[in-house]
TrEMBL record:
Single GO term (MF): metallopeptidase activity
Protein name stated in the entry: Zinc metalloprotease
Lineage start: Archaea, Methanobacteriati, Methanobacteriota, Stenosarchaea group, Methanomicrobia
Family membership noted in the UniProt record: Belongs to the peptidase M50B family.
GO-annotated biological processes: methionine biosynthetic process; proteolysis
Cofactor: Zn(2+)
One Gene Ontology term, aspect cellular component: plasma membrane
Keywords: Amino-acid biosynthesis, CBS domain, Cell membrane, Hydrolase, Membrane, Metal-binding, Metalloprotease, Methionine biosynthesis, Protease, Repeat, Transmembrane, Transmembrane helix, Zinc
InterPro entries: CBS_dom, CBS_dom_sf, Peptidase_M50, UCP006404_Pept_M50_CBS
Cofactor binding annotation: Binds 1 zinc ion per subunit.
Domain CBS: 263-319, 324-382
Bilayer topology annotation: Multi-pass membrane protein
Species in which this protein is naturally found: Methanimicrococcus blatticola
Membrane spanning stretches: 12-34, 46-65, 77-95, 115-142, 163-182, 214-239
Length: 391
C-alpha cells in the first residue's frame, strides 16, 4: 500500500506504508546514537528528536534523488517512467513498459544503473567537503572534547553533525549500491557489461547468480561480525535476486506466447442491469470471481466479487453491477501474453478482456491463465533439455 506525495518532471512519487515504519526506526537510531553518528548528547530531548527526524527526512530526500537520477536518465533515453516508490529498503523506479528496459542498449543501461550511486557519492563528497571547509573538520568541529563536554543545546550548533551524517550515509549508500548484487544498481551494471558480450537472457541469469552468491557471502560476514541488521539485509537481497530471476524468466516466456493461443473463448458475461444480490448468487453458481459487464451485447466494464463487497449486504438489492463495475482493460488477440501481464499490473486487475479490431469481445485472459501458460511452457522447456542431455 502506498500513497502519492508529489510529481517531479511528470513522474509520480509514492511512499509505501513500510517506508513510514523505517523512517521512525532511523530517527530513533539517530536519537540514541552518540556523536558523531547521532544526537544522544543533545538536550533538551525535543531538540534531540527534532534533529534526528530532520536528518532522517533529508536522508530520504537523497534516496529520492538517487531514484530520480535513474529515472530522468532513463526518460532521456526514451523509457517512460510510471512512478517512483520509496519503501522499506529504499526506492524503486517503475518503467511503464518493461520491454523498454530490455530493448535498451547495454551502454545506456550501464549509465542508468550508475546514475543513482554516483548521485549519492557526489552528495556525500559535497557535504563532507562543506564540513571540512566551513567548520574546519570533516566531522564538523575541531574540538570534539569541548563539543561533548559543554552539552551544546543550540539547534544550529548541531548542523555540522547533521551534515556529517548525511554525507557519510550517502557515501555508504553510493558504494554499497555498486556491489554486484542484482537487482541493485551494481548488479544491473554487471548485467549491462555482460549483455555486451552475451544475450540479454544469459546476462540476466548470470547477474542473478552472481548477486545471490554475493548475498550469501555478505550474510556470512555479517553473522561472523554480529551485524544482524546487515545479515537481514543480505537475506532480503538474496530473496530479491531470486524473485527478479523468476520474474525475468516469466516475462521471457510470456513474450513468446500470443494472447489468442491461451485466452478463454467461452466467456460468461452479466448484463449491466443485474442486481448485486443476483450477481452474488450467480457467482456461487458459476464459481468464477469476475465477469465482463455488457449492454446490448457490448462490453462496457468488468465486475468482480470484491467490487460487490464494498456495498452493504442489506443494500445490494438496490444496486446493479453497473454501479460498481470497473472500466474495461483490454488487449488484442495478436498481442503477446506479456502485454496482458503488463496491463494487469498497471491497472491492478486480475483479468483483461480480449477485443478484436472492431471492439468486439472475442475472449478473456486471467492471471491464472498466464501462470498456467508459464508453468506449462517452462515444464516442456525443461523436459526438452533433459531429453537432449540424455543422448
Amino acid at each position: 500500500m502506498s500513497f502519492k506525495i508529489a510529481t517531479v518532471k511528470g513522474i509520480p512519487i509514492h511512499i509505501s506504508v513500510t517506508f513510514l515504519l523505517v523512517f521512525l526506526l532511523f530517527a530513533f537510531i539517530f536519537a540514541i546514537t552518540g556523536w558523531p553518528f547521532g544526537f544522544r548528547y543533545v538536550e533538551p530531548p525535543i531538540a534531540r528528536y527534532t534533529l534526528a527526524c530532520l536528518t532522517t527526512a533529508l536522508f530520504f530526500v537523497t534516496l529520492l534523488i538517487h531514484e530520480l537520477a535513474h529515472s530522468l536518465l532513463a526518460s532521456s533515453y526514451g523509457a517512460k517512467i510510471q512512478s517512483i516508490t520509496l519503501f522499506f529498503f529504499g526506492g524503486i523506479s517503475a518503467i511503464e513498459n518493461p520491454e523498454d528496459e530490455k530493448n535498451l542498449d547495454p551502454s545506456k543501461e550501464l549509465n542508468i544503473s550508475l546514475a543513482g550511486p554516483l548521485s549519492n557519492i557526489i552528495i556525500g563528497i559535497v557535504l563532507l567537503g562543506i564540513n571540512y571547509f566551513v567548520y574546519g573538520s570533516i566531522l564538523g568541529v575541531a574540538d570534539v572534547t569541548n563539543w561533548v563536554a559543554e552539552g551544546i543545546t543550540v539547534f544550529t550548533y548541531n548542523i555540522p553533525t547533521m551534515i556529517f551524517l548525511l554525507g557519510t550515509l550517502n557515501l555508504l549508500l553510493g558504494f554499497f549500491n555498486i556491489l554486484p548484487i542484482y537487482p541493485m544498481d551494481g548488479g544491473r551494471v554487471l548485467r549491462a557489461w555482460l549483455a555486451k558480450r552475451h544475450s540479454y537472457e544469459e546476462a540476466t541469469n548470470t547477474a542473478v547468480s552472481i548477486g545471490k552468491g554475493f548475498s550469501i557471502i555478505l550474510a556470512i560476514i555479517s553473522i561472523l561480525a554480529f551485524q544482524w541488521w546487515l545479515a537481514i539485509l543480505a537475506l532480503f537481497l538474496y530473496i530479491s535476486a531470486s524473485e527478479e530471476g523468476k520474474m525475468f524468466k516469466a516475462t521471457t516466456i510470456l513474450e513468446d506466447i500470443i494472447v489468442k493461443d491461451i485466452m478463454s473463448t467461452d466467456v460468461l458475461t452479466v448484463d449491466e442491469s443485474l442486481s448485486l444480490t443476483d450477481f452474488i448468487t450467480f457467482v456461487f453458481q458459476k464459481k468464477h470471481p469476475g465477469y465482463p459487464v455488457t449492454k446490448n451485447g457490448i462490453v462496457i466494464g468488468v465486475v468482480t466479487v470484491d467490487d460487490a463487497r464494498f456495498v452493504n449486504e442489506a443494500e445490494r438489492y438496490a444496486f446493479t453491477v453497473k454501479d460498481v463495475m470497473k472500466e474495461v482493460v483490454s488487449v488484442k488477440p495478436e498481442d503477446t501474453a506479456l502485454e496482458a501481464f503488463n496491463q494487469m499490473g498497471q491497472h491492478a486487475v486480475g483479468r483483461v478482456v480480449v477485443l478484436d479490431e472492431e471492439g468486439k469481445m472475442v475472449g478473456l485472459i486471467s492471471r491464472s491463465d498466464l501462470m498456467t501458460a508459464i508453468y506449462l511452457k517452462d515444464s516442456f522447456k525443461e523436459k526438452s533439455k533433459t531429453d537432449m542431455n540424455s543422448f
